[in-house]
Write a structure and sequence with these properties.
The complex is a heterodimer of chains A (260) and B (361). Chain A is mainly alpha-helical. Chain A has eleven helices and no strands. In chain B, the strands form four sheets. Chain B has a six-stranded mixed beta sheet, with helices on both faces. In chain B, strands 13-12-11-14-20 form a five-stranded antiparallel beta sheet. A five-stranded antiparallel beta sheet of chain B has the order 15-19-16-17-18, with no helix packed on it. Chain B is built from nine helices and 20 strands.
C-alpha cells in the first residue's frame, strides 16, 4: 500500500515535470499549425526550421558560442585551479568564496553588469561580446568541478613522477592531467549546457544583428509563435538530455572508481 | 666502504618554524641507515631534501663527492618509496613499474624484461596487468618497491613504507626489505617512528628530535648506550632516573650508591649531576636484603614472554620498572641488583636546545 502510494506520487511529479515537454514534442510533429488539435504526423515544421536562415543562424550561433565558451572556460578555469592550489590555504579559500558569488548572483544582474561594462569600454556588441560573457559565467563552474580533483594526493603523484625521472611537463601530462580529467570533462559539459541554456545574459550582451536560439524564440513569441519553434525546442531538449546523461554516467563511473 | 651521501649543516625553516637545526649526516655505500624519531622531528624533511623535493635554507648535500644541493629531483640518482605508495591509479601494475623506463625511452623489449625482473624481486610474478585498486595494501607496498628499484638507483629512500600495514605483515616485510637490500646491493635510507623496525633492520640508526640529530650509531650502541634521556626513552621502556656522581665510577641514585663504569675520563667527574638509564631487563631480583636495594612490588603485568613489574623502592621515591621471567606477587618485598656495566650514565640536558649539543661531549 505504502509502496503504491509512493509510486503514484512519483508518477504525478513526473507528469507535472514532463507532460508539458511531451506536449511540445508531440505538437512539433503535428501537421496543422494548431496548438490544440492533432491532425496527423508530419516533419513539415522540422523542414521549415532547417530552411529558415534566421533559425539556422541562431542554431549555429548558439552551439558555436557554447562550444567555444566551454572550451575557453575549461582551459582558463583549470589553469586557475592549478594556480590556486599552490597558494596558501587561506588565500585559496577566499578566492574560492569569491568564485561562488557569480554562480549565486542573479543572471539579470550579471547580464546588465556585462552590458554596462561593454558600453563603458565601447566594445561593439555582437558575437564576440556574447562569447566573452558566456566564457565569464562558465569559468566558476569549471573551477567548482575541477578543484576537488586537485588534492594532496595529486601532488604526491606529481612528486612520485619527478622522483622517477620525469620532467615537470611529462609528469603533468602523464600523471596529473589524467587525474584531473573527469573534473575537466564535467566542467566542459556543464559549461556547454549552461551556455546553450542561457537567455538573460545573452539578451543583454548581444548586438542587434545576432540571435541565439533563446533570443530568437523570445522575439518570435511577440509576432506569434510558429510550430517550427516547437521543433527547435524539441531538438534543444534532446541535446540537453543527452549531455546530462553523459555527465551523469561519467560521474557514476568516477564515483565507482573512487570507492573501489 | 666509501661515503655516498653527506649532509653538511642542513638548516630548514617553514615560515617561522625551525624544522632542521643544522643536520650533519654521512651515509656509506651499501648501508641500511634509519632515521628514527617522533613525528615532527624533521626526519621526513631530511629525506625530502635528499630526494630533492625541498631545498635547504643553509647547508649542502653531497652525492658521491658531488654537490647536488640544487639538482632537481628528476635528475638525482635516488628513488623513493612513498609513505602512501603514490602509485599511479590510472595505470596498471606493469605501467606503473615501467614509468621510469618509459621516461628514459628504453625499448619495449627491455622494459618488459626489466618489469618482469622487478616483479620477481618483490615476489609478485605475473602481476603486470592487475589494476592498482585490485591490490591489497601489502601488494601495493611491494609494487611501490618494484617501481622504485626497476631503474637501479644507487640509493633507495623509504618514507615509513610499512606504516600502513598491520603488525604481522609489517614484520614479514621487515625481513623482505633486508633481503631485497642484500640482493640489490644498494644503499637504503629508511624513515620510521617505530624503534623496533629501526633496531631490526638497520646498520646505522640516527635518532632525531626537534630538528637535531640526538645520536647515531649501530642499533646495539643506541640501545645499550643512549646518550640522553630522550634517546633512552624513545628506544624502548626504560628507567630514567636522576643521579649524582659521588666518586670515580660511583653514582648515587635515590639514596643508594652503585658502582658503575663511567668516571672523569668519560666526562663524568665526581659531584656532577647526571641522568641514569637502567633497562628493565637488567635489574635482577634477589631475596629481600640480599641486593643493592629493596622494594615492594606494586603492580604486575604478564606480557607474553615475561612479566613486567613496578617496584616501589623502600627508602627512596623511585618506582622501578622490571622485566623478569619469574613470577612474583604484588606486595612481595624483594631485593634488587644491577651490574655496573648496565648502568648507563648520561649528561643532563641543560635546556631543550642544548639537549642536542650534548652529544658532542
Amino acid at each position: 500500500m505504502k509502496k503504491a502510494i509512493g509510486r503514484i506520487y512519483i508518477l504525478i511529479i513526473m507528469l507535472f515535470l514532463y507532460l508539458p515537454i511531451l506536449t511540445l514534442i508531440v505538437l512539433s510533429f503535428n501537421e496543422a499549425k494548431s496548438m490544440s488539435v492533432w491532425t496527423g504526423f508530419s516533419l513539415h515544421w522540422y523542414a521549415e526550421l532547417f530552411q529558415s536562415r534566421l533559425m539556422m543562424g541562431a542554431i549555429v550561433n548558439t552551439f558555436s558560442i557554447a562550444i567555444l565558451a566551454a572550451l575557453i572556460a575549461t582551459i582558463v578555469g583549470t589553469m586557475a585551479v592549478l594556480g590556486m592550489s599552490a597558494l596558501k590555504p587561506r588565500t585559496e579559500n577566499v578566492l574560492l568564496g569569491i568564485n561562488n558569488v557569480p554562480m549565486l548572483n542573479a543572471d539579470i544582474v550579471t547580464g546588465i553588469a556585462l552590458m554596462l561594462f561593454f558600453l563603458m569600454i565601447g566594445a561593439p556588441r555582437g558575437y564576440m561580446t556574447v562569447l566573452f560573457s558566456h566564457t565569464v559565467f562558465c569559468i566558476p563552474y569549471v573551477i567548482l568541478s575541477v578543484r576537488p580533483r586537485v588534492n594532496k594526493n595529486t601532488n604526491r603523484l606529481f612528486e612520485a613522477a619527478l622522483d622517477l625521472g620525469a620532467s615537470e611537463r611529462y609528469a603533468f601530462r602523464k600523471i596529473v592531467l589524467p587525474e584531473l580529467w573527469p573534473g575537466i570533462t564535467s566542467g566542459f559539459l556543464l559549461s556547454f549546457t549552461m551556455s546553450v541554456d542561457d537567455f538573460i545574459i545573452t539578451y543583454f550582451t548581444r548586438g542587434a544583428g545576432i540571435n541565439t536560439i533563446s533570443t530568437l524564440i523570445y522575439s518570435e513569441v511577440k509576432i506569434g509563435i510558429r510550430p517550427s519553434l516547437f521543433a527547435l525546442s524539441t531538438i534543444i531538449f534532446v541535446v540537453a538530455l543527452l549531455v546530462l546523461i553523459i555527465v551523469n554516467i561519467r560521474q557514476e563511473r568516477a564515483n565507482k572508481h573512487a570507492l573501489a | 666502504m666509501s661515503e655516498l651521501i653527506r649532509l653538511e649543516g642542513i638548516v630548514k625553516r617553514f615560515d617561522d618554524t625551525m624544522v632542521l637545526n643544522g643536520i650533519d649526516l654521512s651515509v656509506e655505500e651499501n648501508q641500511f641507515v634509519t632515521l628514527l624519531g617522533p613525528s615532527g622531528c624533521g626526519k621526513t624533511t631530511t629525506l625530502r631534501i635528499i630526494a630533492g623535493f625541498e631545498t635547504p635554507d643553509e647547508g649542502r648535500v653531497f652525492f658521491d663527492g658531488k654537490d647536488i644541493t640544487n639538482m632537481p629531483a628528476n635528475e638525482r640518482p635516488v628513488n623513493t618509496v612513498f609513505q602512501n605508495y603514490a602509485l599511479f591509479p590510472h595505470m596498471n601494475v606493469g605501467e606503473n613499474i615501467a614509468f621510469s623506463l618509459r621516461v628514459k625511452n628504453k625499448s619495449e623489449d627491455e622494459i618488459r624484461s626489466r618489469v618482469k625482473k622487478a616483479l620477481k624481486l618483490v615476489n609478485l610474478k605475473g602481476f603486470e596487468n592487475r589494476r592498482i585498486d585490485q591490490l591489497s595494501g601489502g601488494q601495493q607496498q611491494r609494487i611501490a618497491m618494484a617501481r622504485a628499484i626497476v631503474n637501479e638507483p644507487r640509493v633507495l629512500l623509504l618514507d615509513e613504507p610499512l606504516g600502513a600495514l598491520d603488525l604481522k605483515l609489517r614484520q614479514e616485510m621487515e625481513y623482505e626489505l633486508v633481503r631485497l637490500k642484500n640482493e640489490l646491493g644498494i644503499t637504503f635510507i629508511y624513515i620510521t617512528h617505530d624503534q623496533e623496525e629501526a633496531l631490526t633492520m638497520s646498520d646505522k640508526v640516527v635518532v632525531m628530535n626537534e630538528g637535531y640529530i640526538q645520536q647515531e650509531g649501530s642499533p646495539q650502541e643506541i640501545y645499550d648506550e643512549p646518550v640522553n634521556a630522550f634517546v633512552a626513552d624513545f628506544i624502548g621502556d626504560s628507567n630514567i632516573v636522576p643521579g649524582q656522581m659521588v666518586d670515580e665510577r660511583v653514582v648515587k641514585i635515590d639514596g643508594v650508591e652503585y658502582p658503575c663504569i663511567d668516571g672523569t675520563e668519560e666526562g663524568f667527574p665526581p659531584r656532577r649531576r647526571v641522568d641514569v638509564v637502567i633497562r628493565p631487563e637488567d635489574i635482577d631480583i634477589v631475596p629481600y636484603g640480599k641486593g643493592q636495594w629493596n622494594g615492594t612490588i606494586i603492580s604486575k603485568l604478564f606480557i607474553g614472554v615475561h612479566y613486567e613489574m613496578l617496584v616501589q623502592s623502600e627508602d627512596g621515591k623511585v618506582e622501578w620498572l622490571l622485566q623478569n621471567y619469574d613470577q612474583h606477587d604484588v606486595g612481595e618485598k624483594i631485593g634488587m641488583k644491577v651490574d655496573p656495566e648496565n648502568i648507563q650514565i648520561m649528561h643532563k640536558p641543560k635546556s631543550d636546545a642544548e639537549s642536542a649539543i650534548e652529544i658532542d661531549l
